[in-house]
Amino acid sequence: RFMHKWLMKYTTSLEMEGKRATGNAWGELHLVRRVGTGRMKRGLSDAIED
Hints:
With about 50 residues, the protein is mainly alpha-helical. The protein is built from 2 helices and no strands.
């Protein structure tokens, strides 16, 4: 579990470094998706609905 979290943080940081010129939209979308999937696992609705 720890290794999975570390790999996720590492890969997202690498992706963010490559997309730094695009602004914060990608990072915000990633955060919303992470929050949404956590909520879905607990049986709650998405944080933001499309």
